[in-house]
Write a structure and sequence with these properties.
By secondary structure, the chain is mostly helical. It has 13 helices and three strands; from the N terminus they run αβαααβαααβαααααα. Helix 11 packs antiparallel against helix 12.
Length: 313
């Protein structure tokens, strides 16, 4: 009898953000707008960096790759969430859930690694301006980018393997809008302690390492900036880091809160709201933060508009 009751689940049901049909329509409209704006903003940054010769520098090479990662990142969750908001059938196959978690964890860890690489880039530019082209040569940039994606894939392989090696024989209703680790573990009828420990170790190691590199980079940057005699010079130099620091603060604070807590501290409702920040809002804000605070991006955009206006005339 026990074996009959413990049948392996073949699909899950994503409960999403709300059960209210009227609210679902509103959430769909807002979600679709956010998704379109996110794609537009990040694709605009990538296009500007590719077309404007003045932006062919290591910093903007990394920024364009961050924008590409953001597009991949939000696309792992948003289309399925939008579909479920309009659909009666909110199921996702077991394989689909595995793939969604894999690609989400890949892009999330890749982004954390890229943010630390971008901190290193700012350190090299401010603390070693004469050797900057050596520290951030084309080959070094490509190696750092490859390392970031490798870290992302390793994170996803290990975590996804441990989560889905468990048995799922009870409820198949995921109290979330995508297949994230905490809500999926909540459904398992196996002992989840090892999977939770591995998530804590792997994700924690990546976060601690990348945060440590970012903090170390900024300690050295602040030390170098304080040696600049003029206040205007200090402000101008440190302003190049403002966008990066803003993005780092938003991304890491929400990610650490979600993955670095014991399972007993998790509230499914709370996790859904927190997840909205780092899965949907952060990819939307990043291009806005970098465009609002970056005069070179603004100049490139105005240059493109100027050329289009000239062609129209």
């Amino acid at each position: 009898m026990e074996r009959k009751n413990q049948t392996t689940l073949k699909e899950f049901i994503l409960l999403g953000l709300s059960d209210d049909p009227k609210l679902q329509s509103l959430l769909f409209a807002i979600g679709l707008l956010i998704y379109v704006l996110t794609l537009t903003g990040n694709l605009t940054i990538i296009t500007l960096i590719q077309t404007d010769q003045h932006l062919h520098t290591p910093m903007y090479f990394l920024l364009s790759n961050l924008s590409f990662t953001e597009i991949c990142y939000i696309t792992t969750t948003m289309p399925k969430m939008l579909w479920d908001l309009l659909s009666v059938d909110k199921t996702i196959s077991f394989t689909g859930c595995v793939l969604q978690m894999y690609f989400f964890l890949t892009t999330a860890a890749t982004e954390t690694a890229l943010l630390s690489v971008m901190a290193y880039d700012r350190y090299a530019a401010i603390c070693h301006p004469l050797r900057y082209t050596l520290y951030m040569s084309q080959s070094v940039c490509k190696w750092l980018l490859t390392a970031s994606w490798t870290i992302g894939h390793l994170n996803a392989i290990i975590n996804t393997a441990f989560v889905f090696s468990l048995r799922f024989c009870g409820s198949n209703k995921i109290v979330h809008f995508f297949c994230d680790i905490p809500p999926v573990l909540h459904l398992s009828c196996s002992d989840t302690s090892l999977a939770e420990l591995m998530t804590f170790i792997i994700s924690g190691s990546i976060m601690i390492t990348t945060v440590s590199l970012i903090v170390l980079s900024y300690i050295l940057i602040v030390s170098a900036v304080l040696k600049i005699h003029s206040a205007q010079g200090r402000i101008k130099t440190f302003s190049t880091c403002a966008s990066h620091l803003t993005v780092v603060s938003i991304f890491y604070s929400t990610a650490i809160f979600t993955y670095m807590r014991p399972s007993s501290w998790h509230s499914m409702e709370q996790d859904r709201l927190i997840s909205l920040l780092y899965t949907i809002i952060t990819p939307l804000l990043n291009p806005l933060i970098y465009s609002f605070k970056n005069k070179e991006i603004q100049a490139a955009f105005l240059n493109v508009l100027g050329k289009k206006g000239h062609c129209a005339l």
